[in-house]
Amino acid sequence: MERLENDPYAGARLRMVAEQIESRGITDARILAAMRTIPRHLFVADENRDQAYEDYPLSIGHEQTISQPYIVAYMTAAIGPRSSDRVLEIGTGSGYQTAVLAGLVREVLSVEIRPGLAERAQRVLGALGCGNVRVRLGDGNLGWPEEAPFDAILVTAAPESVPTALLKQLAPGGRMVIPLGAAGWDAQRLVRLTRMADDVRTEVLLPVRFVPLTTEEPRLH
Ligand code: SAH
Fold first, then answer.
1. Is 91 left (phi over 0), alpha (psi -120 to 50) or beta?
2. Taking the mean position of all CA atoms in its chain, how far away is CA 95?
3. By CB count within 10 A, which of 4, 77, 125, 134 is most buried?
4. Does domain 10-207 have CATH number 3.40.50.150?
5. Pocket flag, ligand 1, residue 51 (CB < 6 Å)
6. 216 alpha carbon – ligand 1 mean position (Å)
7. Residue 122 has what DSSP assignment?
8. What ranges make up the beta strands (E) of 126-169?
9. Residue 67: which H helix or E strand, with range?
10. Which of 211, 215, 220, 221 to mutate to test the pocket of ligand 1 (most atoms within 8 A of CB)?
11. Closest ligand 1 atom to Cα of 94
């Protein structure tokens, strides 16, 4: 990894955390520290590096986006990450959310359906020395049954309803944060599901806009 003191984006990254994340009420010191450290500019395309710390999502090719920094922080806080947790992520994309989680929990298992994105994310995460991450190519609707149960599941693409396989793979006390609803303006909500002793508690958190969770093989790139 580039040494932080030689990192031309170090100042932009500190400003991003102060102005977009802390100021909007995210107070978990571990999350703020992780986001002050992880070089987000390495997860975006080279031509977008100068925009990597701006307050909006960016294209990562394949018609997909890296989420706005605040949304990454918000979703991370919403799963209540503990250092002993094993976390399943659906939709690796750029790998940035994966890296943030990897700095906070014991292990991150991430499923991505597009080979080009999975390969690039694996390469960047490897170069940064994220040793507690595994990325697998596959359909996230199915989760990662061989590795279940998970203390938390974070889904970064929106299905219309909660995939039953994911709910099954949530440990007792486990939290899943997932955008739900059809694509389009104002149609999706970020929801948190918590597995209680006898049932599942559902909380609607905030309106969001995510790319759809694909239900069939996308064209290979
Ligand atoms: N957390 C990522 C967000 C990427 S966008 C980031 O910040 O970079 C959502 C991702 O979900 C895309 O990479 C898309 O290819 C992936 N995706 C969509 N449908 C999927 C599915 N059924 N299984 C696994 N990944 C899927």
1. left
2. 8
3. 125
4. yes
5. no
6. 13
7. H
8. 133-137, 150-155
9. none
10. 211
11. 8
